[in-house]
Amino acid sequence: MAAHRILILGGTTEARQLAGLLAGDPRYDATLSLAGRTAEPKALPLPVRSGGFGGADGLADYLTRENIDLLVDATHPFAVRISANAAEAAARAGTPLFALRRPGWEERAGDHWTRVPDLEAAVDALGVIPRRVFLAIGRQEAHVFNRTPHHAYLVRSVDPVDPPLTVPDAQYILSIGPFDEADERALLTDKNIDVVVTKNSGGEATYAKIAAARALGIEVVMVERRHPAAVPAVATAEEALDRIAHLLSPAIKRGV
Question: Is pLDDT at 132 greater than 90 in this prediction?
């Protein structure tokens, strides 16, 4: 029997973990698709496709042309457009789809969170009094904070912010998680940070800044997730592997 063809829309730790679980399994012929936004992605154990598909239409065509048996959306929890395109494309192509999406962080005792629906609201939440802001939102949307140049910004990202912010006081750190709580606490202290701005991405790799802010009594402006596309979802790579085995089992394929 020919191996089942699986397309994983990746870019997350969970996508990488699932790729590792699928690699070498003769039942599956899996490909990992990356959007190409990270300049130097880590080595991966599966064949990799880089770049976009051309929206929902292009992805639907790819699913049909490549005879994809299953689509797994393991993109970043804030990749809303990609997830919407995946849902639309899967429906058009008649390809089964589920999401691998880690749960968001929950506020704990001692946290000082200001919850906002998007980054524009996060800009407003900083207020009119100058503050020292740690931006831990990645590079692509950092420019939104050009609207409030009276704050001082420390921006951390995997790749450089290009072009840099136009504000008069901005510093940049290039780094990739996982991060250590003690190091994060030292960073916030050394840079005299007043407020942390981050997205509710979930997971352990970047949670240390939340724990550090809690310990130091620093406010966190938390950008909450939008509701993802209405598709079934699992939280871990192991759960995803179980779901794949179920969806692509011979009994399911025969309609038994």
Answer: yes
